[in-house]
Amino acid sequence: MTGPTSAGSSPVLVTERLRLRPWDPEDAGAALGLYGDAQLVRWLSPAMTVVGDVGAMRAVLEQWAAEDTRLSWPAGRWAVEALDDGRLVGGVALLPLPPGDEDLELSYQVLPDEQGKGFATEAARRAVRRAFDEGVPELFVVARPANGAGAGVAKRLGFQWVGETSKYYDLRLQTYRLRPADLAG
């Protein structure tokens, strides 16, 4: 694994197969494959709803870029692309959880055609390592009870189930916590 370099307000992070870089409005067409997919976005609602077209996706990416400059590091959002050919494979984010923004949430999404290749785990592990290197004491993953794939990635990273809560997003969610000593791999 190589170290990050700076680009924009979030660093570029690199793994053996992936580059995590800030989103760019030019990513709108490829990003629509993620955030325009109702089956994927159902796990992100209400924080995000299905994006209807490339113009709307561009607007979302512009909003994220503006928000990224206001977030306190290590919070941020990254496009995840394959190193071999630069194709977009997913997204990863570290964002404050509402309400109160005192907890930091890890989230990850992978294009349907790219699922099952370990990209979510690899990208998420890199973002988590960077957060812990910066002194973050713990991270959370919150998942709907039926989101087995999302929970599976969390467990592969070493996140521990801590219970169900309605604290976040006014939904009943399974909560997983990770501390630096527990990070797997």
What does this protein look like?
Strand 1 and strand 2 form a beta hairpin. This protein has 185 residues and is an alpha+beta fold. The two termini are 12 Å apart. The chain is globular and about 40 Å long. Helix content is 29%, strand content 29%. It is built from five helices and nine strands. The N terminus is likely disordered. It has a single domain, classed as Gcn5-related N-acetyltransferase (GNAT) (Aminopeptidase, 3-Layer(aba) Sandwich). The strands form two sheets. It has a six-stranded antiparallel sheet, sandwiched between helices.
Please provide the count of β strands. 9
| Mean residue pLDDT | 90
CATH topology: Aminopeptidase
CATH architecture tag: 3-Layer(aba) Sandwich
Q: How many distinct folded domains?
A: 1
Query: What order do the strands of the largest sheet run in, or round the barrel if closed?
Result: 1-2-3-4-5-6
Helix content: 25-40%
Low-confidence stretches: 1-8
